[in-house]
Amino acid sequence: VQLQASGGGLVQAGSSLRLSCSASGPTFSRYVMGWFRQAPGKEREFVVARSVGGFRSWYADSAKGRFTISRDDAKNTVYLQMNSLKPEDTAVYYCAAGGGRDVYAETEYAYWGQGTLVTVSS
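Above: the chain's sequence. Below: its structure in C-alpha coordinate form.
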Protein backbone atom coordinates (compact mmCIF):
# COMPACT_ATOMS: atom_id res chain seq x y z
CA VAL A 1 0.00 0.00 0.00
CA GLN A 2 1.33 3.40 -0.95
CA LEU A 3 -0.09 6.43 0.81
CA GLN A 4 -0.14 10.02 -0.35
CA ALA A 5 -1.15 12.73 2.10
CA SER A 6 -2.26 16.17 0.99
CA GLY A 7 -4.18 19.21 2.11
CA GLY A 8 -1.76 20.86 4.48
CA GLY A 9 -1.07 24.56 4.47
CA LEU A 10 -0.78 27.77 6.43
CA VAL A 11 -3.93 28.86 8.25
CA GLN A 12 -4.87 31.17 11.07
CA ALA A 13 -5.88 29.99 14.50
CA GLY A 14 -9.55 29.09 14.61
CA SER A 15 -9.61 28.01 10.98
CA SER A 16 -10.42 24.63 9.52
CA LEU A 17 -8.48 22.36 7.24
CA ARG A 18 -9.15 18.99 5.69
CA LEU A 19 -6.35 16.57 5.04
CA SER A 20 -6.67 13.71 2.60
CA CYS A 21 -4.73 10.51 2.28
CA SER A 22 -5.08 8.51 -0.90
CA ALA A 23 -3.95 4.91 -1.08
CA SER A 24 -2.95 2.72 -3.94
CA GLY A 25 -3.67 -0.98 -4.06
CA PRO A 26 -6.78 -3.11 -3.65
CA THR A 27 -6.46 -3.84 0.06
CA PHE A 28 -7.05 -0.39 1.54
CA SER A 29 -10.31 -1.46 3.16
CA ARG A 30 -8.54 -4.12 5.20
CA TYR A 31 -6.44 -1.65 7.17
CA VAL A 32 -6.98 0.49 10.18
CA MET A 33 -6.16 3.99 9.03
CA GLY A 34 -4.50 6.46 11.32
CA TRP A 35 -3.16 9.98 11.42
CA PHE A 36 -0.08 10.92 13.38
CA ARG A 37 1.73 14.22 13.64
CA GLN A 38 5.17 15.46 14.47
CA ALA A 39 5.69 18.98 15.71
CA PRO A 40 9.08 20.69 15.40
CA GLY A 41 11.48 19.30 17.97
CA LYS A 42 9.00 16.72 19.23
CA GLU A 43 8.37 13.05 18.72
CA ARG A 44 5.66 11.84 16.42
CA GLU A 45 2.36 11.33 18.19
CA PHE A 46 -0.94 9.65 17.58
CA VAL A 47 -3.83 11.86 16.52
CA VAL A 48 -6.73 9.70 15.38
CA ALA A 49 -7.55 6.34 13.82
CA ARG A 50 -10.49 4.75 12.05
CA SER A 51 -11.31 1.07 12.15
CA VAL A 52 -11.75 -1.31 9.29
CA GLY A 53 -15.25 -0.70 7.99
CA GLY A 54 -15.34 2.70 9.66
CA PHE A 55 -17.37 1.52 12.65
CA ARG A 56 -15.11 2.95 15.31
CA SER A 57 -12.72 5.85 15.77
CA TRP A 58 -10.08 6.63 18.36
CA TYR A 59 -8.93 10.15 19.18
CA ALA A 60 -6.07 11.64 21.12
CA ASP A 61 -7.26 14.01 23.83
CA SER A 62 -5.86 16.92 21.83
CA ALA A 63 -8.09 16.00 18.89
CA LYS A 64 -11.35 15.24 20.63
CA GLY A 65 -14.13 17.62 19.74
CA ARG A 66 -12.13 19.36 17.03
CA PHE A 67 -10.90 16.69 14.60
CA THR A 68 -12.91 14.10 12.70
CA ILE A 69 -11.58 11.16 10.76
CA SER A 70 -13.52 9.49 8.00
CA ARG A 71 -12.77 7.00 5.30
CA ASP A 72 -14.17 6.27 1.88
CA ASP A 73 -13.15 2.77 0.95
CA ALA A 74 -14.61 3.14 -2.53
CA LYS A 75 -12.13 5.96 -3.14
CA ASN A 76 -9.27 4.43 -1.13
CA THR A 77 -9.10 7.65 0.83
CA VAL A 78 -9.08 8.68 4.46
CA TYR A 79 -9.78 12.23 5.57
CA LEU A 80 -8.94 14.30 8.60
CA GLN A 81 -11.21 17.26 9.17
CA MET A 82 -9.59 19.69 11.56
CA ASN A 83 -11.62 22.52 13.05
CA SER A 84 -10.77 25.25 15.54
CA LEU A 85 -7.11 24.89 14.78
CA LYS A 86 -4.59 26.09 17.33
CA PRO A 87 -0.94 27.07 16.95
CA GLU A 88 -0.02 23.92 18.87
CA ASP A 89 -1.53 21.88 16.05
CA THR A 90 1.36 22.96 13.86
CA ALA A 91 3.08 19.79 12.70
CA VAL A 92 3.75 17.47 9.83
CA TYR A 93 0.76 15.16 9.60
CA TYR A 94 1.24 11.58 8.48
CA CYS A 95 -1.33 9.05 7.45
CA ALA A 96 -0.67 5.40 8.11
CA ALA A 97 -2.20 2.00 7.44
CA GLY A 98 -1.93 -0.84 9.88
CA GLY A 99 -3.21 -3.95 11.53
CA GLY A 100 -4.84 -2.30 14.48
CA ARG A 101 -4.06 -4.33 17.58
CA ASP A 102 -2.98 -1.11 19.26
CA VAL A 103 -4.14 1.78 17.16
CA TYR A 104 -2.21 4.28 19.27
CA ALA A 105 1.17 2.69 18.56
CA GLU A 106 3.28 3.65 15.57
CA THR A 107 4.68 0.15 15.42
CA GLU A 108 1.26 -1.21 14.48
CA TYR A 109 1.27 0.70 11.21
CA ALA A 110 3.17 -0.89 8.35
CA TYR A 111 2.61 1.77 5.71
CA TRP A 112 3.17 5.50 5.95
CA GLY A 113 2.56 8.49 3.76
CA GLN A 114 5.14 11.18 3.23
CA GLY A 115 3.49 13.75 5.48
CA THR A 116 1.85 17.08 4.87
CA LEU A 117 2.75 20.23 6.78
CA VAL A 118 0.10 22.12 8.70
CA THR A 119 1.09 25.50 10.08
CA VAL A 120 -1.32 27.41 12.30
CA SER A 121 -0.50 31.03 12.95
CA SER A 122 -1.72 32.89 16.03
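The radius of gyration is 13 Å.
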